Amino acid sequence: MFSFLKPKSPAAEPASPDTQNGFATQPPESRPSWAQRLKHGLAKTRDRLGGQLSGLFGVGRKIDAELFEELETILITADVGVDATQTLLDTLQKKVRREGLTEASELHVALKQALVDLLAPLQAPLVVTAHKPFILMLAGVNGAGKTTTIGKLAKLYQSQGLSVLLAAGDTFRAAAREQLQVWGERNNVTVISQEKGDSAAVIYDAIQAAQARGIDVVLADTAGRLPTQLHLMEEIKKVKRVIEKAAPGAPHEVLLVLDANTGQNAVTQVKAFDDALGVTGLVLTKLDGTAKGGAIAAIAKARPIPVRYIGVGESVDDLRPFEAGEFVEAVFTT
Q1: Which of 216, 257, 307, 314 is deepest in the core (most CB within 10 A)?
Q2: Which pLDDT belongs to residue 195?
Q3: Burial label, 47 (beta-carbon count in 10 A; 0-12, 13-18, 19+)
Q4: How do beta strands 281-285 and 253-259 pair?
Q5: What pLDDT digit, counting tens, does each position of 280-315 carry?
Q6: Measured distance CA(24)–CA(316) in Å, rounded
């Protein structure tokens, strides 16, 4: 039996002083800016990549073959990936020949720009007002952060004046349903769920409800799965087909949620889920807990699917649209 969870009044269950909508928060007056939070969140990646590069491009060092070899090692160990690393090195070597550069320090700015250029195709903000309801299907491996991402996205869209409905399509993990239900109660958002049964049926029912109620955005959760679990990959293909039947042209966005801690394995996940579902956008979570943020460059080279959002913390507003320039600046700025 389906459960249409009616939102409670916000006053019925007040949030604790140090939380907001189920996420950590701080008083507005003490809240750092997004640029500061991004820089702080990318600290581990910056230590591994930006810090080593600053030493490599020190004043007085000349450009030579050894410098490029060291640069190659730094980039690869920072999870930038072999192909993306080679692309960046080729770009820098061409610039050196074209402009007659001799000082290593001159390559620092050039590398930043080359990385921005590589990541620029991933910068494509998601617009969720093209359809009503706009249906987002979220997928990913276990533990990538799908359910938490859904909560953050719902609050983001609410802040834009849009109505949101959540479909608890992860019918295998009770905690996922409960997490969405708690979020829904605290934020006046309807959650459609089912204790046991078929994920596709839950999401189908949610779409029907959204159409009847004039909801703007539907966020459909799905159970986590590994690309190697072929029967589960077939199941998620079925979920997508059912969504298409419920609303022709949907899902309007297939978001793959990636845990940045997986590093190069994220590229494998992107390829596998894209081949199965036709992924249209990525969400890169947990960047604040890893030194492997360079993997975004590997994704840009291997499968340049737009990175719609990046997450650098636990707070509800620590999930923001990806911007190549500010990301690179945060990695390089000490």
Answers
A1: 257
A2: 74
A3: middle
A4: parallel
A5: 999 999 999 888 999 999 999 999 999 999 998 888
A6: 7
